[in-house]
Amino acid sequence: MAGDPDLTGHDVAPEMCADTDAALRAPEPPKQPPRRALMKITPATYLKEAALKNLFLLCAFVAVAGVALIFIFVGIKGWPIFGKVGLLNFLGGATWLPTQGHFGILPLIVNSLLAMTGALILGGPLAVGTAIFLSEVASPRARAIVRPAVELLAGIPSVVYGFFGLVLLRPIIASLFGGLGFGLLTVWLILAVMIVPTIATLTEDALGSVPEGIREASYSMGATKWQTIWRVLLPAAKIGIIDAIILGMGRAIGETMAVVMVAGNAGVIPDGILKPFLTLTTVIVMDMPYASGDHTTALFGIAIVLFIISMLFVAAIRVISRFGKQVG
Amino acid sequence: MRRIVVALAGTALMLAGLLALSGCAASTTASTTQLTVTGSTTLLPIAEVSAEDFMAANSGTRVLVSGVGSSAGIESVTNGTCDIGTSSRELKPAELSLGLVDTPVARDAIAVIVNPGNPVTSLNTSQVADIFSGKVRNWKEVGGPDLEIGLVNRDEASGTRQAFLELVMKGRDFDPTAAVLPGTGQVRSVVAQSRIAVGYISLGFVDSSVKAIVIDGVAPTPATVADKSYPVSRVLHFLTKGEPQGLAKQFIDYVLSPTIQDSVVPDAGFLPMSAGVK
Question: What mean pLDDT is reported for chain A?
Fold first, then answer.
């Protein structure tokens, strides 16, 4: 009874539902009981409600305070580098040789973007394809195998991906294409697999939220499965899929442990996809143990840049979602 | 008014506490004997472990170890701010007249390693510097096959990298496009897997999975390191102002004893003073 959706326009207590039922069956005499039931809410209940409300407020506050504290701390620690080196020289400088006083992070920014873009080009279609398979094509049995597998991919610690890449993938790439196997190609392959769960689960959700009626309409017009997916479902779920891809981009650019093990960590823009390179995240892991003075400040400056990049991603998702709502 | 009184009382209590604490600290210093060891970061692993074991074996003594660099170590032992200065380089001519007594405590040798499948077995120092500075990029330029050289470097936190920079590069910069790996083990395993790779590790960590290059005609072995014929090696020194005495002598003797020489020194990748000496 209590779960009956027709009766729960608002949150209604179970005993009230029972009373309303009684009222429906015998309309005349029991007009009073529901009101009395309403008035039974005691001060203790109000207190409990208020306490719970504040508890949840506190939970939300901790999250916000965490972000704010990290941002303030990183900001305070990293800000001086912009004054010392100059914002343009820091972001646009082509030489990263921190121990010799060169703090240009342009190669690191370019490398991070290169790593992310390649991973997206390889992993994006793979993930969207997986999502389409799970949502539209797979039999329940296939789905029962594939979906947990995809979810398991998300649960593998990134250091395990890195170790796998270093020990297994890197020598294979080295023997196929030459070089040492440290480089963009290896990082792309690892990151492509790592971003699949993020993009696939969110894309599957987006496809799942397309109303069944739209599918039925498409099929009743004589469209095939492929035509329905390509012409109807993907456009209908477009906004959700773009959001999923942006979140995947965030995952790719922020990934550190897996990348540091297979990137080779040379602080230059690589002249090929088989040459070692250093990114915004891996430089922090590599240099933090021994950095001192301006070098440490520069690493915090890089953390600020990473923070701003991830804020841009979140902002992009919000703007696109709002835009999507207006259009839809 | 009351608040002010409380604040004052609080401050007074804190001050009293601080005084008590500093009093404590002062009295402990007085009742123990203290030794300060300052200098080379390369020597830190040996000095730190020795200090811990020494303090455990001799209760009531305190050995303070810090790594500030060899030159700073020589400087502070000269002006008396520490009892033992540690150095990974030889004294410069100007420093020889400072009255410092040198006790060598370990040897450090760096092997240039390649894959066992690489036909190159011998190089001279300037060829090695050419390879690591990026001037030579193909194995055929140093008598090997026509293959690109896969350069493997260490991270800047590495003492081995600093030593290699001093002993081989001699003022030249490392090739910035080289792969940078954060550990001896990683360098060794990458070189063991790749025919084109070249890297460098402490001689103590060389095993059969890699091949150590003969440099200037001398193969890196404990014997060639001991007689100083192998060029990429150095001696690690403990320096004292005058002959070591008292606690400093005790500590140096302990570091030279088999307890440290046969376990701590090789574990840190160095060679004991006795290794290879006939």
Answer: 87
Cβ separation B177–A97 shorter than 8 A: no
**Per-residue pLDDT for B120 more than 90?**
yes
- pLDDT at residue B171 in the model: 85
Whether chain B has a CB inside 8 Å of the CB on A94: the answer is: no
- Contact of A178 with chain B, judged by CB distance below 8 Å, is answered with yes
For residue B156, give how far its alpha carbon lies from the nearest alpha carbon of chain A (Å): 8
Burial class (CB in 10 A: 0-12, 13-18, 19+), A104: buried
Question: Considering the domain boundaries, does residue B231 fall inside one?
Answer: no
* Per-residue pLDDT, A1: 38
B150 and A171: CB-CB below 8 Å? no
Q: Look up the domain containing B113 and give its range.
A: 108-226
Residue of B nearest to A183 (CA): B179
Collect all residues of chain A within an 8 Å Cβ-Cβ radius of residue B179: 180, 182, 264-266, 276
Question: What is the structure's pLDDT at A238?
Answer: 92
Which amino acid, one-letter code, is at B201? I
- State the pLDDT confidence band at A33, using cuts at 50, 70 and 90: low
**Is residue B38 assigned to a domain?**
yes
- CA B137, CA B227: separation in Å to the nearest integer? 33
**C-alpha to C-alpha distance for A16 and A19, rounded to whole angstroms:** 5
Q: How many domains does chain B have?
A: 2
CA-angle at B6, arms to B2 and B8, nearest 5°:
115
Note the ipTM here.
0.73
- Are B33 and B127 members of one domain? no
Q: How far apart are CA B89 and CA B236, in angstroms?
A: 7
The CA distance from B141 to B219, in Å, is 21
CATH number at residue B116: 3.40.190.10
In a domain, B278, yes or no: no
**Given a cut of 80, is residue A205 above it in pLDDT?**
yes
Percent of chain A with pLDDT over 90: 75
| Beta strands B271-272 and B100-114, pairing class | antiparallel
Same-domain status, B166 and B243? no
Count the neighbouring beta carbons within 10 Å of the beta carbon of residue B114.
26
Residue A286's nearest CA partner among A257, A313, A312 is A257
- For residue B30, the model assigns a pLDDT of 38
